[in-house]
Design a protein that fits this description.
alpha/beta, 60s Ribosomal Protein L30, Chain: A
């Protein structure tokens, strides 16, 4: 349990890959996780769980492998397939990070990188 002033928050993020290869999925997912942690001053021990989704066109690797490779192997990780909506962003990995933070909900900075930027144009970079 965290001390006073800490709260459980959800941080969202997404990225895209140029090709469905394990290397691309691992590289871009690692980049995304690091950016989410950096923007919100989240340390690995602050992370409670990570939920990943991937679009149906990504089948070469699990995005969670990136988290394990970053040392988050004791953190609960879950991968799922994104709903295949016509016209949606292709080759996209999405993440929901549950973590402890001292930031208020309106101070959380979500991260949308590469082709996924178009998903949340309302958010500052």
């Amino acid at each position: 349990m965290k001390e006073d002033g800490w709260r459980l928050v959800a941080v969202r993020g997404a990225t895209t890959v140029e090709a469905d290869t394990p290397e691309q999925i691992r590289e871009r997912t690692s980049e995304l996780l690091k950016e989410m942690m950096h923007r919100n001053s989240i340390a690995p021990d602050d992370i409670v769980s990570l939920i990943f989704t991937a679009t149906p066109d990504l089948v070469s690797d699990f995005p969670a492998v990136s988290a394990r490779n970053m040392g988050l192997s004791r953190t609960p990780l879950l991968c799922s397939q994104e709903i295949p909506v016509a016209g949606s962003v292709e080759r996209c990995v999405r993440v929901m990070m549950h973590a402890y933070s001292r930031s208020a909900k309106n101070e959380i900075r979500h991260a949308y990188l590469h082709g996924a930027r178009q998903l949340r144009t309302d958010l500052p970079e």
